[in-house]
Design a protein that fits this description.
With about 850 residues, the protein is α+β, with helices and mostly antiparallel strands. The chain is about 35% helix and about 20% strand.
Amino acid sequence: MARRKLGAFQRHQEVRGRRVSTGGTWAWAADPCLGLGRYRMAARTTIRKPAAKAPAKPVLKHFRISTGLKDLIGRDLITDDFVAVFELVKNAFDARARKVVVAFEEDAIVISDDGKGMSRADVLDKWLFVAYSAKRDGTEDQDYRDKIGEARRVYAGAKGVGRFSCDSLGETLLLCSRARGQEVQTLEVDWRDYEKDPKKEFAKVGVRLGSANAFPPEAHHSPTGLGTSLVIRRLRSEWDREKLLDLRRALSKLINPFSTKGDKFKIEIVAEAEAEEDAEIEALNAERDPEDPAGFVVNGIIENSILKALAERTTVIRVKAIEGGDRLETELEDRGDVVYRIREANPYKHLKDAGFSADVYYLNRSAKVTFTRRMGVRSINFGSIFAFRNGFRVFPIGNEDDDFFGLNKRKQQGQRRFLGTRELVGRVDVLGVPGFDEATSRAGGFIQTKHVDQLVEAVVDKCIKRLERYVVDISWKDDFDKDEAGTSRMRLDSSSAKIAQLVSRLAATEGVEVVHYNPDLVRIVDERSESFLDSFRALELLAEKTGNKKLLSTVDVARARIEALQAAEAEAREAELRAEARALKAEGEVATLEGMLDDERGRNSFLMSAAALDKDTILNLHHQIGIHAAAIQNSIKLMSGKLRRAAEVKKEDVLGFLESVSFRNSQILTAARFASRGGYKEQASSRKDDLAQFIRDYTDAIANSWAPAGLSATVKGAEKGFERTFKPIEVGIIVDNLVSNAGKAEASSLLLALSVEKRDGKQVLVIDAADDGVGWNKSLKPLDSMFEMGVTTGKAGSGLGLHHVREVVGTMGGTIEAMPEPYDDAHPGAHIRIRLPA
């Protein structure tokens, strides 16, 4: 920078508060310390301390607040009309109201409650004190609480800005409120006054406060009652019927709809303009099944009907903190049947004082259909897992597009292994303790804290993952369970064994106490099942961990059955070995039979001609009969022991004994029929082949050979092309019992109509068994009770045949149902439909 000579005279310059005396040459330059444009000395400098000055006394100033604050904490903060209504309803709850009425007029919304109301001092010191909340500082109910002796009161809100929801809904407000022993206070607010001049200060915009002897008519309030009415006029949006129905659904989720305690606080919608259409819908609904309403009404008390829609139709896991929050109790219930209940230490320290509890429901296809009918909305549109703080919903957690618990993100990593928001409905409850605060924006959810992080962790680990171990690992393994309203398929041997393994693994987990389990679901299955050993080992571990004496006794009995079976198999094997030498001599005959088999190509590989009845066949028949006979003998011994030891034997035990013996006898009979046609060697082993072709061949070659006189069984449709793994003897038992039942019904014709349909991308073989007999007994109610043990369809029946069919069909992963209507005109009698997955 250019320098400019100033002369050799002495000057004084004040630099940064210091007096600088110079006797040299001054120059204009940029100085990094003194700033641009300051004079800097080119020669010697002498610095003297300035004279001390008295510091300036601070002056107290204040923030000025623009009228624009109204929009920031009103319309800009609460942008959703429903959330605005929710905030005002929550204020009614906090005022100890038992009921709040939300009335819709032509251009007004009136929200009226029967709470404790406000005095003049309350209006001035609380309602008109912006961002102040007496709920938050604990002074809201001091006197009132002392009178009723309540130790603790929780509130839905504590921000002090919810009252500005009135501005979100309409341009003007008339507040009318009466406290006990007080006059009615009236406050008139015109929110447009705050919008005229943004430079005007907020506190200088006036509102009109007055009093009256009674509530005005427009307040929709009892003239002599206590409480508050908000009359909001000049509405900012339109409220048509569809929006009012949406509001009704949304309000039903405001107060925990999964709780039975919500009926202490009532919400009613009144909309006179919709009364006529409501009456028409109610008339239509009166003539329809309650499960399938024609429509829904706007007016009336809002009911938390979700529990009715979910009751006994879903799989639910319930978790709650107990013993002061130190422990957690978890209960799994499947369609009305409790599966297990466990207790363990609470590992989440931030949840111990939060009153944590959660209910998470899994909806299968049957439950989703019922839910949609009862609620008027599909479950995925209703929402997923909601969060509640002090009993009121925290928005937007649980909305269709919200993934607060990270379930959808997790599901993307394993589509077939994890549950997402589309399959789940539920709630998570906490108290409004520190760490669980809502964002000021009432659609902002929880403020993120360590407490909230542990809440998410607890829900995923203790609810979702444990629910998945039951639903994904057990229920989903059965293709037909998704359509079942009950747990009948979970009682099948394969599923029951998996449930027993699940509970035994929980019992083996360190720190977990199994308090209860369902003996109908967690059991040792029949020894004839492939799942027998799995269920035995699981119950053996469970008995060891729980020390349950009754269970230990059951395990001992099962162990005796195993030993008896092993002894029978060893005896049969020994006989087989003794006959092996003799069987070798038949090799020449076997070669001849193989040639004959080639001539029978096109028939099922399991069925040979009668000439194939050789020593090898007899040997295998002896082996199987030996096993079944030993099992029968063992059952007889066990029952004889019970009869000797007990003064009285339960009816269920006797029926169980008869069912077991009868089923074993069915296996012997079917085995003998196989042997009579040859090919017995393969009938007891699982094989993969064409099931439709096998049913056709078995019916033609075996079932018709022993069918009662005058009865003919025929098969039509689905000739080939349905491959799956099955045991021929099990399919034989199904066909044999269907033929036997038709004979007892005096039928002359039994039709087995086969067809293949697709279900969820998989092939399913449908077998319609229909006859021309006497049909169903009218006393069978419900009709499917015929498959229960001991229920007979005719005079000559034992009530075990169709029960055996259901057991076998279940083992094969299929379903069986009695059809109330005949199959066709040629077969007007009984009609049974069986579905078997590929």
